Amino acid sequence: MEKITHSGGCHCGAVRFTVRAPARITVQHCNCSICSKTGFMHLLVPAADFSLLSGASQLQTYTFNTGVAKHLFCTVCGVKSFYVPRSNPDGFSVNLRCLDSGTVEQVTVEDFDGLNWERHGASLAHLSHS
User: Fold this and answer.
1) In this predicted structure, what is the pLDDT of residue 98?
2) Whole-structure pTM value
3) By Cβ atoms counted within 10 A, which residue in 25, 52, 54, 106 is the most buried?
4) What backbone phi and psi angles, to 5 degrees, belong to 126?
5) Closest CA to 1 of 25, 18, 28
């Protein structure tokens, strides 16, 4: 599937990024504690398909539990527009809700049982490989 460039960022615009992914994307809707509270919709991509354009100095890292996932949020507006997920430490998870409008043609949502991460986490590993 051909990849195009999508742009996105946090609410205040301090953090901006691009991500290469198809125009018709599949995202994961996770029921774990942090995703449930933040409404994060995961577009998992290889690290090579993600570029931080601005705002590196505005990002703060939050970790919990195993400390593997690096939850990055804007210190100005508090929005987590992307992060390094535990399931895919070699890639990024971009929040669908933080992509600019105009480039996504279709979204398919898959449920992911993050409450039982140990049983299901490995099923996402292939999404961060080119």
Assistant:
1) 98
2) 0.89
3) 25
4) -65, -15
5) 25
* DSSP bridge partners of 16: 9, 54
User: Buried b / exposed e across 79-118, counting CB within 10 Å, b at 16+?
Assistant: bbbbbbbbbbeebbbbbbebbeeeebeeeeeeebebeebe
- Using CA atoms, how far apart are residues 111 and 98, in angstroms rounded to an integer? 19
- Average pLDDT of the residues of the chain: 92
Task: Spell out the residues 6+ positions from residue 94 whose beta carbon is closer than 8 angstroms to its own.
Answer: 8, 17, 19, 42, 43, 44, 45, 50, 81, 82
Answer yes or no: are the C-beta atoms of 76 and 58 closer than 8 Å: yes
